[in-house]
Amino acid sequence: MIALGGCGVAIGASAQQQPKPAQMKSTSEQRSEVSITVYNQNFGLVREVRDIDLANGRVALEFRDVAGQIQPETVAIKSLLGPNQLRVLEQNYRFDLLSPAKLLEKYVGRKIKVYRYNEKTGREDAFEAEVLSVAERPVLKINGEIAFDFQGRFAFPEVPANLIAKPTLVWLLDSTAPKQKVEVTYLTRGMTWQSDYVFVINQDDTGGDLTGWVTLQNQTGATYTKAQLKLVAGDVQRVSDYSRQRGYYPPPAAPGAGAATGFKEEGFFEYHLYTLQQPTDLLENEQKQVTLLEAQGVKVQKRLMFFGAQYYYRGNYGQVASNQKVGVYLDIENKEANHLGIPLPKGVVRVYKADRSGAKQFIGEDRIDHTPRDEKIRIKMGEAFDVVGDRKQTDYKVLGSCSSESGWEISLRNHKDAAQEVELYEPVGWDWEVTQSSAPAVKKDQRTLTFKVNVPARGETKVTYRIRIRYC
Questions:
Q1: Which of 287, 345, 418, 461 counts the most CB atoms within 10 A of its CB?
Q2: Percent of the chain having pLDDT more than 90?
Q3: What pTM value is reported for the model?
Q4: Residues 142, 228: one domain?
Q5: How many structural domains comprise the chain?
Q6: To 5 degrees, how large is the angle CA 35–CA 282–CA 4?
Q7: Smallest Cα–Cα separation from 380: which of 351, 355, 353, 354?
Q8: Can you tell me the mean pLDDT for 325-337?
Q9: Range of 313's domain?
Q10: Residue 348 resides in a domain
Q11: pLDDT, tens digit (0-9, with 9 covering 90-100), for 341-364
Q12: Has residue 1 been placed in a domain?
């Protein structure tokens, strides 16, 4: 068996007692290819090809410069020279990392040197000390006495062999060639991406220009240069295992400048794959932005919506709402005829509009889900300032143990200098029937009653209706 030190994950059968295998190392300098597939669920797939000097027979290979948040149970290695060129006898993952605390822990029961500055002589005095414990703080035995909180500089004769600077994969291999071209793949946490969209609308709110950005984060603990980058958009099923999750990943910053070439999109299983059209560097602890799409002249429909509540219809209330806000929404059709028609990954759409001076101002944002082509996107912008409404119950009658009839009046007031169309949404539920209304009533679905109301400039429009409900 290969020594693991304090921490290790061993996979496969133990090797039989044989002559000591050749000790070899591989670093990122031997990479000939690397490709990264990043999922927007905080994990990525790494595939790299390395040209490695090995030996014939049994070889212990240290495979360095892997992700610090690698999932060792997903690692696979194979030779690209042929199916029988390389055989894995044992696989280990070493993550017992070198640190001051860990170094002291490894020296419990051993002797070190402690140096303390002597102000009288102007030099450091050296003390030989035995490390007795590091449970809370170092306990030392110096000159036959037990001491703790001993101020000084600790010096160690060497770094223990089972401590490493970075996480490392270690294989015990049976190789048939002194030089191998190997492919290694693994999943790692700490790598994610999200899409962000900037939508600049025109002065009459009928269209605008949409730009999409990919914001990519690499918090894996490894750097990948000249990588072929792919992104998977979709909800990929994964098994939860909270005990293996390590680290915190901060939210992405605002979009920055992106590459001009952008991504090529293709369908992939039940997801969508976006491939960056040139190699890129993914540095450790780096955030990168790349252009995903650019679309000009996208048509948009602005909608004002006034919502009620289902519980209104089962009681006697009188005045229900006064100066109630009217929601503002933008609807976009993701179609080729609308200069879009591509799968849009989920993300945040931020909307801007130029004021009279020409300066663009932020006017709202909303989060969209994965949106296939030919589907509609709805963005909630906020609440209208100059359009408000009141809702009151004008009549209520109990018709039986499970039914009632009520009368309603909705008053909409528009303080703008232009007429506005407002859509009323009344979530009724149960078994219902409109018996009388002052405006055309539309049964949108079993639970929703709607009206479209034109409100004149600086004017008011009232809608009245009676509705009969049976709820059991």
A1: 345
A2: 57
A3: 0.72
A4: no
A5: 4
A6: 75
A7: 351
A8: 95
A9: 301-332+382-470
A10: no
A11: 989 999 999 999 999 999 999 999
A12: no
179 lies in some domain: yes
Looking at residue 101, what is its pLDDT?
Answer: 84
Phi-psi region of 358 (alpha: psi -120 to 50; beta: other; left: phi over 0): left
- C-alpha 39/C-alpha 57 separation (Å) is 39
- Return d(Cα 149, Cα 356) in angstroms, integer: 68
Same domain, 292 and 227: yes
Q: Which amino acid, one-letter code, is at 412? A: L
- pLDDT of residue 272 exceeding 60, the answer is yes
Between CA 61 and CA 155 the distance in angstroms is 30
Whether residue 404 is predicted with pLDDT greater than 70 in this model: the reply is yes
Collapsing DSSP states into helix, strand and coil, what is residue 100? helix
- Domain shared by 31 and 148, yes or no: no
CA distance 366 to 95: 41
% of the chain with per-residue pLDDT over 70: 89
What pLDDT does 363 receive?
95
| Interacting residues of 337 by C-beta distance below 8 A, sequence separation 6+ | none
Nearest to 184 by CA among 91, 279, 277: 91
Q: Which residues neighbour 276 within 8 Å (Cβ) at sequence distance 6 or greater?
A: 228, 229, 230, 231, 259, 261, 262, 263, 290
User: Looking at the predicted structure, is the pLDDT value of residue 331 above 70?
Assistant: yes
Distance CA 370, CA 126 (A): 65
State how far the Cα of 201 lies from the Cα of 364, in Å rounded to an integer: 12
The CATH number covering residue 22 comes to 2.60.40
Cα dihedral 308, 311, 316, 322 in deg (nearest 10): -30
